[in-house]
Task: structure prediction
Amino acid sequence: MGDAATRLYGLLDTIEAQRGSVTFETLSEQCLRLPHLSESLTGRRRRQLYRGLLLSGPLSGEVVSFRSHATAASESQKAVAMRLKEALGGNSSIDIEELQGFVCHFSAETRCQFDEKMTGITLTMATMLASDEEAKGLEKLYWLSLLLGALQRDFIVPESSRVHDETLATLFRLLLQYHDPALSLHFDHYMVNVGIYILRWVQRLFVVGDNYEAVLRAWDWLFVTGDSSQTVYFVLAFAICHRQQFLSLHTKEQITEALDTLVFHLPGPMEAGVDPELRDGRPRPFTELVSGKGLARNAEVAYCNTPRATRQIIDSLLFSSEDSKGLVGMSVKSVDDVKQYYTSMVTLPLERLDFLETFGTVKIEKTVCEPLNYVILDCRARESFEAARLPAAIHAGDEIRVDSEQINNVTSSIDGARGSHLCVLGTGRDIVEEINMLKFFVLHLVQRGFPYVSCSGFRCIVPLIKANTIHIEGSQRTTGPRFFSRYPEMLRKAGFSDYIPKMEFDKNEAARKAEEVRAKAKEMHAKAMEGMQVAKSWGMGLIQRMGNRLAKSGGAEGAERDAQLLPSTNAMNVLCTERSESGQYVKNESKRMVDTHGSTEQAQPQKLFSLGNDFSDDEDDLDLILLSAYDRGNADTNSAVTQREAVCLDEPEPCATKPATTVPTDSPTVGDAATTGTDECDATDANRSRSVVAASIAKGETLTDEEFLQLLGD
Result:
């Protein structure tokens, strides 16, 4: 027995450990010194270890008899009691009435249903207590009650989360694809939904059949982590480590049987390890599984390489309570909405929290994992990319099309980045061509074996841009933080040296381009209406302010009507900002502090998740940065203007309400589908021109320069 085992045994045998005075951190540190911890634990010492890891402080209650509750036991509870007696070794000091009373009492006290999942977990814990030579008779039931209660509180997935089973199964399939695309595609090829199996293993805490001894060895390391959310990543790491076993099977029946009978067996000191043979350039690969400590290490690799928002969403869905009102930080959504959102995805989506953690200008709560460095494959139009982009962004919008040859060329050019976290970024708008293109591109990367591939839309981060809480590069950003020095270096290491000159932006050049944009805005305003105040931001923000100005001259009736059409002006475009004398950023329009000290008007808190219909109309005023590569090629501007004028200016009668347009439900954009529809014209001649602008703003349409001039005149 080595020194590490001697120190652990000495610690477990102390009076302090028996009283619960030894801290979790102390016990965990000692356990981590033993790669083969399970081999060193006897029944009594494992019970002492679980007491220290799962229970803190003095124990409550006392050893009591449960015989009086036996008469209330149901037939199913009596059947569980019979299996429990076998697991405890048929101990004659605990008769069947005691066990029936225990099952009935525990179920009533904890509202626990002894289904197949809970029964397997109970029998596993009973197997551990059966080998405890110190606990006798009813004392075993006392410890079983305490430890099962701790497991139910901290590690067992509650029944209330079963409503999210379909969503979680989809998420787990995407999670496996994110970490091991080849294995995930292998399951998909044979139409096996591996997400269902991952969810089953998580809910049963690794118990498959009667493999109780093997499960205890996995529990040892799961409890050492002290984190219930690690259960998912233990399962994921174990499946990936055994990937060669699954990849060698080539029928659905064989794969299904292998998944149904998978035993969570950890190699002992004299056993050969399990090599996943997964070497694809990732900085922290999954290593050979040689011990329980190796499984815990691989689980940590999977956990820390999963997007932070995804980790939180999985945790919220798994351990949601019956009275929970929604996911943490997200809009309240129905179960079907959340399921539909993830079902529409072809890869894991990045949420606002992920962008804020990596590219944010403000500090957010740290976790045990370092922020992930995302390489952004920006598929928006060139104008949008140059106007505003994330650091570490590479423009691919002009090259990407639904064409295999072009996709192959782009994929080959980024092959050196294999192993980096890649985010395919679109506009986030409901453009069918762009949606299909993004799906095609993402799936091509997955089929080529790129791990860590995600997707998102630029519209997702618009609220962060407006709040000035995220780093943005481009001609629209004339003030504020510049390019992070760590991103060029990170891109060079990832094999993107050729792309860096396209992304870096000279300060003088940025100022010159910004001045050109402002000059163009002045010219447009002079032609449209003399005396219009120069707008600081270009895009729909310009048109919105023009609509407001026109509304003032339209009388009370027109103002009241347009107030319903125009989006709220509480959150204006803050892409172009100024510094006050104190050095803080202020909005140009209202001169209100975004990051105030003592101001009564605080910045609005941002939702950290984009899941949900939380996009407001005023976010569409950033049209310049939300152009897709298809906006220029597929839109016939002149015919669109002519049609709008014919409908809204020439007809003597009011136009009919335009039917609502529903966003396709299979959209991979971040955010729920929304339905919009509004009247496009007025009945009175005096307000027709204003209605065109107001309706376009309310619908989030993009007006080109030509449309603007034709609608408003010189």
Q: What stands out?
A: The mean pLDDT is 74.
